[in-house]
C-alpha cells in the first residue's frame, strides 16, 4: 500500500532544485516540492508526501489528524515509515 503522509518542512534547498527536507513522524527525508506550484512553501509548513514528492500543502490541524489516524492503521503505516527511512532521492 502506498500512503500519502503528512510531513513538516524543516528546510528548503537554496539551490533552486525544488527539494526540501521534511520530517515525517521523526523520519527526515529530502522530498521534491516542485509540484506545489500555486503556493510557496517554507519551513514550518505541512505537506502531503507521496513517493518522494510533496503533492499539496495542508494545514497543521489536518496533518495532525491524519497522522493520528495513520498511527492507528498499524503495520501498513509502519511499513511506509520504514520505506521512507530507507529512501533517498539526493
Task: Give a short synopsis of this structure.
The chain has helices spanning 60-73, 75-86, and strands at residues 5-12, 19-24, 27-32, 46-50, 53-58.
Structure description:
The protein is of the alpha+beta class and 90 residues long. It has one domain: SH3 type barrels (Roll), CATH 2.30.30. 29% of the residues lie in helices and 34% in strands. It has helices at 60-73, 75-86; strands at 5-12, 19-24, 27-32, 46-50, 53-58. The radius of gyration is 12 Å and the shape is globular. The model has no long low-confidence stretch (mean pLDDT 85).
What distance lies between the first and last C-alpha atoms, to the nearest angstrom? Answer: 24 Å
Oligomer: single chain
- Please indicate the count of domains: 1
What is the CATH topology?
SH3 type barrels
What proportion of the residues is helical, as a percent range?
25-40%
Principal-axes shape call: globular
Radius of gyration using CA atoms only: 12 Å
Strand line-up of the largest beta sheet: 3-2-1-4-5
How many helical elements? 2
Mean pLDDT, all residues: 85
Low-confidence stretches: none
Helix-strand makeup class:
alpha+beta
The strand count comes to 5
CATH class category label: Mainly Beta
Beta fraction: 25-35%
The assigned CATH architecture is Roll
Please give the largest β-sheet.
Answer: 5 strands, antiparallel
Order of helices and strands: EEEEEHH
